[in-house]
Each structure stands twice: as structure tokens, then as C-alpha cells.
């Protein structure tokens, strides 16, 4: 039963992405039978090979407890943080006197899920100016990350955690409890 729900959940998500990528001018009525059939076949093939990696415990985890809504709500938050970081790095790199203070800082997180830690570290890495170097469990049995930060304004773990994680951790925690 676990494999079937993992396959079904991965199929639904893959198929939704297929339809989203093919929609032109946000008009679903323009999709023809060929696109719908090929999308179902591609989603089934993707699900066949990747469902065991996508859903370890419950294949329908994304469709429970408003997680899909939380994911949709996270997208504009992430885009806004991405835009802010891009402008910040662009201003720093284009200024006549480059005023940066690169450094490696440790941040801590309350996330325990492997998926949650991976998503948080990817959000941090994909935001310009920061790169996640390592994820580990520190001496207090708390998950921590080493982050290379283009402008390390503080070395304090708690303050750096708040600045770097920003709003990401809140949404990631709601997705991967």
C-alpha cells in the first residue's frame, strides 16, 4: 500500500507540474488531448522511477494538512527574499569600493526532517550571497549548518540564524513537520 500511495502522490504532483508548464496564457482550455495523454504517460514514468525517493513514509504527505497551500504561499515569500538578495549582492558587487566581509557562520535550526533540512539548505544556497557548506548535528543535539556568507555582519550563532534563515524556516517547518 505504501508503494501505491507514493506512486499516486508523485504522479499527481508530476502531472500538475506538466499541466502548469504547458499552460499558455493561463488558459487550461488550450490544452489538447495529445498534451494531456503525453503528460499522463510522462508523469507515470517519472513516478515509477522516482516515487520511492520522493515519499519515504507517506506518499500523499503533500496533500494533507494544507501542505500544498503552505507550499503555494511560500513561493511569493521565497521570490521576494530572492529579489532582495539579488539587489543586495548586485549593489555590493557594482559599487566602486566593494564593502563585503565574507565569512563562515554557524546557524542552528529546529527542523528534524531530512527533507526539511534539505529544503532549508537549498533555499539558503539558492539565495545569492549565501552557500550552505555543511549540515550536521551539534553538541547540543540540535541541527546546525555552516553557511558561507558574503557579508557576515555577525558571528553570533543566534543572530546569524535569524538573519540567514529569515522566513524560510517557518514555511519549511509547516511543510515538513
From TrEMBL:
Entry-linked InterPro entries: Cation_antiport_E
Keywords noted in UniProt: Antiport, Cell membrane, Membrane, Transmembrane, Transmembrane helix, Transport
GO MF terms held by the record: antiporter activity; monoatomic cation transmembrane transporter activity
A cellular component annotation (GO) from this entry: plasma membrane
Taxonomic superkingdom: Bacteria
Subcellular location: Cell membrane
Protein name stated in the entry: Sodium/proton antiporter shaE
Lineage: Bacteria, Bacillati, Bacillota, Clostridia, Eubacteriales
Amino acid at each position: 500500500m505504501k508503494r501505491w500511495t507514493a506512486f499516486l502522490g508523485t504522479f499527481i504532483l508530476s502531472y500538475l507540474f506538466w499541466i502548469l508548464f504547458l499552460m499558455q496564457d493561463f488558459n487550461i482550455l488550450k490544452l489538447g488531448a495529445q498534451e494531456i495523454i503525453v503528460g499522463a504517460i510522462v508523469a507515470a514514468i517519472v513516478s515509477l522511477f522516482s516515487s520511492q525517493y520522493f515519499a519515504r513514509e507517506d506518499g500523499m504527505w503533500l496533500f494533507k494538512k494544507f501542505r500544498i497551500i503552505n507550499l503555494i504561499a511560500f513561493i511569493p515569500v521565497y521570490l521576494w527574499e530572492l529579489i532582495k538578495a539579488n539587489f543586495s549582492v548586485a549593489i555590493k558587487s557594482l559599487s566602486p569600493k566593494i564593502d563585503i566581509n565574507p565569512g563562515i557562520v554557524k546557524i542552528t535550526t529546529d527542523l528534524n526532517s531530512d527533507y526539511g533540512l534539505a529544503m532549508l539548505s537549498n533555499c539558503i544556497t539558492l539565495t545569492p550571497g549565501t552557500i550552505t557548506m555543511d549540515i550536521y548535528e551539534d553538541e547540543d543535539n540540535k541541527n546546525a549548518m555552516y553557511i558561507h556568507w558574503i557579508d557576515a555582519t555577525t558571528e553570533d550563532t543566534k543572530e546569524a540564524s535569524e538573519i540567514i534563515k529569515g522566513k524560510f524556516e517557518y514555511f519549511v517547518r509547516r511543510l515538513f513537520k
